[in-house]
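Inputs:
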Amino acid sequence: MKDVAARAGVGLKTVSRVVGGEPGVTPETERRVQEAIEALGFRRNDSARVLRKGRTASVGLVLEDLADPFYGPLSRAVEEVARAHGALLVNGSSAEDPERERELVLALCARRVDGLIVIPAGDDHRYLEPEIRAGVATVFVDRPAGRIDADVVLSDSFGGAREGVAHLIAHGHRRIGFIGDHPRIHTATERLRGYRAAMAGAGLPVDDSWVSLGSTEPGRVTGAATAMLAGPEPVTALFAGNNRVTVTVVRVLAGTSRPVALVGFDDFELADLLRPGVTVVAQDAAALGRVAADRLFQRLAGAAPAPARVELPTRLIPRGSGELPPA
Amino acid sequence: MKDVAARAGVGLKTVSRVVGGEPGVTPETERRVQEAIEALGFRRNDSARVLRKGRTASVGLVLEDLADPFYGPLSRAVEEVARAHGALLVNGSSAEDPERERELVLALCARRVDGLIVIPAGDDHRYLEPEIRAGVATVFVDRPAGRIDADVVLSDSFGGAREGVAHLIAHGHRRIGFIGDHPRIHTATERLRGYRAAMAGAGLPVDDSWVSLGSTEPGRVTGAATAMLAGPEPVTALFAGNNRVTVTVVRVLAGTSRPVALVGFDDFELADLLRPGVTVVAQDAAALGRVAADRLFQRLAGAAPAPARVELPTRLIPRGSGELPPA
DNA sequence: TTGAAAGCGCTAACAC
DNA sequence: GTGTTAGCGCTTTCAA
């Protein structure tokens, strides 16, 4: 910038004005400055700008895994909102590791992102308290924050699961299995709670062997499903706790002779083209991201409402697998 | 930091040493500084650090659409490599709009990312010349840069498509349709070239009505497929130019009575569970990201080889749809 | 309309 | 081992 000023024969501040689009510069002067900028290939250094202004025009997004199809649309939605506000997105995957989440979040804070959207892996976010006090707007998505009071936007896991399981019950099932994510994860326990509520609501008992929480790794899920489908009194239907579980269960069921009903939480591409089509409880990942980002930018614009919990509804989409009668 | 120094009763530089993990500080002094840091909830401001050091420890990733399942694994792979080098990822979607790509890239440069990984939307990247000269390492992925000489990592679109089409020919097809992405996109034309090469190699003519390039929007693709399957001499097989086209074609074929063979470029989840399973030419999106990021960090480490083109092999995965005989 | 000086928070270089 | 000074590239303040 110094060089540009020298070449254009003007003061430093004049260049700053032109680059920043501030008023108060003669067209003629502006032309000279622009010329020097072109000639020197000058681009303003935003790091210096940030240092001075205190705002980075960037928001951090910490999620579990960028490669998971559930998070793609969510990220994209956050990005679009950020873009509308002139902000860039800095993001990272926690790989469902609380320590890695913490490192990532603190790294983002050190870079002074204006705001933070977090899909938490851990269950204790007190480490964020100083940051939030220091002015970093923070919104949690998909799962609530642990041990701090913060905005959270999530899907109605409890209600969605209850509706999905009730759907199976309505189609005559009485022995229904539940395979879900690790119990450390909020959505997993909420969905299990929904399952239990639906069973209890219909006066049905739940056998311990019908419930399996744990890693969504295919081997674990396959083992759980196979076990529930074996024995003299196998389950006649399965409820899958998220998209990865559902996909693995579909694979298992493709290999069984007797038809087994299935409802999965989360919609996924091509679910309608499988035979039978997979009945799902769909949540709107993009809406989750959009609502969270909107909330974030409200706060960045100065609004300071008390932290709130927003719960988005889910939608049951019958496609065949959930309407199969008990074998 | 000033406050920390005051509270600990030490000089500014000593705090800097402790925070930066530099040697040459008594354990006792270090303890006092740490204490002050805790008490004040101090976190180093990386913007200032960047300004001083000249490196941001961040890399920019510009792709077409974060929500596209093809880019998820690619982003994640880049992220992992970046993480191994202590860098964060700043990313954005160009939405296949050259102007938006340019804005995004320049915004990233203004923030002084150390390096840039770009999946180009446009075909003229001369606007990047000053940046590259200024030291921003740049690697293009999936498609080559336009009108500048830069590193590029891509899949063997030509060879993969040729192999896929040859596979259909080997199974007896002579009238084969090709539905691909917009001709502006490098991979689309390369795959078309592969198609033509396979047909020519087998001495088969190509009717103009068998080839359709354009948007991957479902309506357009459905129209193209339907047209090729109509008339007295319909195609007996289709080659789909990318994952989105393939998915739409699968939907169209699910509604036809007569069996039509299909090979798609790009693998996708559940392709094996459809009936018939979808034969694909698979590319390794994660490898694409990993190789590109490795190359980027080599450059950042000081290596300055001439820009090179790395082409990753594709793999034909027969699953049924590509082995159907002509109707 | 324009510019000079101060300073954002940090680290490199060089004292002590 | 520790502190002091200068300055990274920009914007803010205030004077011309």
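Chain A has twelve helices and twelve strands. Flag for discussion at group meeting.
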